[in-house]
Fold these 2 entries.
Entry 1:
Amino acid sequence: MRFQTYRHLARVATVGVVVLSVSALVACGGPKKEEGQAPGESTAPPEQQAAPAPVPEAAPAPAAPAETGPITLGDAARGKAIYDTYCVTCHGPTGKGDGPAAATLPKKPANHSDGNFMNPLPNEELYKAIKEGGQAIGKSNAMPPWGATLSDEQIKDALGYVRSLATPPYTGPK
Ligand code: HEC
C-alpha cells in the first residue's frame, strides 16, 4: 500500500541519516582532531550530529562591557546633585541614613558620614552596590540598583560625593 511504502521510505531515510551522521562523526574523530580543542568538545558541527539534531541555541548577547580595573572617583560636586535627587530619601542629606524613607526600610542604610565604617570599603564594592543594588555585594536589596538610571560616570560622581561625606576623611584611592 502507498501509505506503508511511505512509512517504509521514511524509516529507511531516517536510518540513512543516522548512519551518515555516525560515519561523519567517526570521520571527524581520530588523527584529524583540531589542535587546541578543549577535551570532550564535539568535532562535528551541529548539522552533522545524529538525528534529531538539536536546534543550536543562539549565542547569548554579549553582556555590557564589564568595568575593568580599579574604579576612580568622579566629581563630588556633580555627585551631590545626583545624591540630592536620588539618594537623600533614604540616605539623608548628609548620608547619615536618616532620610524620610529610611524608617520604612527593612534595613537601615549605612551611615555614609562614618569614615570608620565607610573608608575601608573599596571603591569597587561601593560602585557595584550603587550600580547593581545592595544584593550584588551581599547586602540588602532595600538598596536599589541605579545602573539603569545613572551612567557609569554619574555613579562615579555619586561615589565621589559619598566619599566626601566621611569623617575621618577618606584618603584611599581617588
Ligand atoms: C530606597 C532607599 C535607598 C535609596 C533611594 C538609595 N539607597 Fe543606598 N542603600 C540603601 C540601603 C538600605 C543600604 C544598606 C544595605 C545594607 O546595608 O544591607 C544602602 C547602601 C548603600 C551603599 C553601600 C554602603 C553600605 O555598605 O551600606 C552605597 C554606597 C549606597 N547605598 C549609595 C547610594 C546612592 C549613591 C544612592 C543614590 C544614587 C542610593 N544609595 C540610593 C537604601 C537606599
Note: The chain has two domains: 1-29+46-52, 76-164.
Entry 2:
Amino acid sequence: MSGRDPWEGQPPQRAQPAPAPAGGLFSRPNLPFTLAIIICLGALVAFLVIVKPFSGGDTEAGSTSTSSTAATSSTDATGSTDATGSTTGGTQTDSSTSSVPELTPLQGFDLETLATGIPFPVGAFSLPDDDRIFVVERGGVIGVVVPGQGLLATPFLDLTDRVGSGGIENGLLGVAFHPDYASNGKFYVYYTTNPGLDSRVVEFHSSGPDATTVDPSTERVLLEVDQPGIRHRAGMLQFGPDGYLYVALGDGGLGDRHAQDLETYQGSILRLDVDGGDPYAIPSDNPFASGGGLGEIYHYGFRNPWRFYIDATENMLYIGDVGQSDVEEVNVVALSESGLNFGWPDYEGENCFTPVDSCDPSGITMPLVAYGHDEGCSITGGVVYRGSAMPELVGHYFYADWCTGLFRSFRYEDGQATDEQDWTADVTADGVIQIAAVGTDSNGELLLVDSNGQLLRVVPVR
Ligand SMILES: [Ca+2]
C-alpha cells in the first residue's frame, strides 16, 4: 500500500540490537569468569525476589522504570484489564502516604515517535501482555505498530473492499477486542459502508491471540444504521466492565433533532450484549429495554461524541462531544447511570443552541469541562491514565483538540474536575497538532494518534 511507513519492508529483527557475538563469553578461556558472573547474578536476583529491598508498595509488573515504584497506594492495584484491552492496574497516587523515595518532579512530556506514514490514523488500541498497538486507519485498515519496528507491512485487518471513507468523518472508526479475546478471538469494528456511508457495527473472528492477520470473510454484521447525512459518525467502541459493548453514534450531521429522538440511533451511545441473542441481545437494564425508545440506547443527546472512554477502575464514563459553533465539552458520569440526555441540539455546552435564546435545562446532563472555540474547534475525547511511568498522573483524564494541539488533563473527584493541567506546549513543541485520538499501550502509557500519520508515545520529562 502506498503511503505506508518506510520501515515496513525491514525484517523485524532489523530494529533489534544484535545479540553479543557468540564465542566470547562462553569460549573456553572465559568460561570460568562467565560462570562466576552468572552465579553472582543468580544470587542477586534471588536476593531481590526474596527480600524485596525496594518494595514500598505495589510495583507495576514489567515496568522498566525504577521510578514507578513511587506508585504507593494499594487501592485499585488490581492489574485488571480495562475494556479497551489495555492493561490497567495503576494505583491512585497519594503523595501524603508515600513511603518510597520521591520522584523527581515531572517537568513535562516528550513524545516518542513509534511510527510515521500511517494513512490517516484515527485510533490506537492494545491488548494485555501484547506489545502490538492496533492502529485504526480511516481508509479501512487496522494496522499494527510494534515499538521499535514502526508500522508492519501486513495489516491486522483490511476492509478497504467494503469501507466508505469519503468525507473526513467516515471510514473505519473504531475497534474493540472482546474481553475474552484471548480465548474466543472475537473483536468488533465500527465502519461506514461503501456504498452508502451507513454506520455498521460488525464482529470478526481471529484464529486467536497470536493471530497477525484476520480473514475479512469472518465478518458478522450486528447492526447497520441508515445514514442519509454524511457527517458526525462518532464510531467509538469499548467494552465496559459489565461485559457489554458500548457504541457511539453522532447525530448524522443533518441539522435535525435525531439526537433527541429515541426512535433513531443517531446522537446516542448504545449498549449491546454481544454474547446473547442473535446477532446481539439488549441488556435488560438498558433504560429503554421495556419501551419508550430503542432498546439499544443507553444515553442520548450527542452531536458527535468523538471518543468516549470507560474507566473500568472507577466505573466511570467520560464523553468528549464535538461542538458546532462555540463550545467543546467533556461529560463525566458514573457508568451505572443510564438514560441521560446530554442536551444536543438544545444545548451546546451549557449554552442554549436550538433555539439560541431559550431552552429548558431540566433533565439535561451538563458537561463537566468545556472550552471555547478561541482554544480549539474539535475535541478529541481521551483516556484515563493508568500507566506506571507517571504515577502522579494515575487517574487523570487526558483529552485533546484536533485543531490546535490542545492537550489537557484533569482528575474527576466527587462531581468536580480537579488538578486541571495544560500540556499543550509539550505536544505542540514536537509539531503535533492534529490529535485524532488518545490511546494506551499494553502498559497503560499514553499514545497520541496524529492524523498526519504519526503514532507517538507520551514519555515523562523529569
Ligand atoms: Ca452536551
Note: Residues 321, 329, 342-344, 347, 367 surround calcium ion (CB under 6 Å).
